[in-house]
Amino acid sequence: MPTLERIQAPFTAAQVRGLNEYQTGTAFGMHMHPFTCAERGDGHHGEEGGDTGVLIATADGWVCPWCEYTQDWAHVFMANSRDGYQPHDFEKVLSTEEKITKIKQVMENYLLMYKDRPFIRGVPDMLASLELRVNELKEELSA
After folding, report:
1. Quick check: 93 pLDDT over 90?
2. Residue 35 falls inside a structural domain
3. How far is CA 28 from the centre of its chain?
4. Could you tell me if residue 1 is inside a domain?
5. How far apart are the C-alpha atoms of 27 and 68, rounded to whole Å?
């Protein structure tokens, strides 16, 4: 079990990326349940990130794309999944092509949400984080 040290918002760009990868299960290292909205049981929260009411990391902290809920902290290990952690099943089991496909499926869910609600909070941050991960994996394929 990792230490549960916390980081406070504002988050750096690298932390935002790591947190969003963690949230969607596409990070390199340890994965546990994602941070979710406290209001996720109200019947108005979607499952774009793989669970109901998955929060999205932004520089200003966590936001819920479905309501006004915010949170200003995260666990260090969530943002730094490559720092000393063993890869979880996403890394160990899937081929690089399968990883890219999985990430693109998650991205598609967020793109559909964004199409319906173009002013939604956090979705551009999530899409940018996941696009960086896809590009990183594509570089692995061409190396």
Report:
1. no
2. yes
3. 12
4. no
5. 26
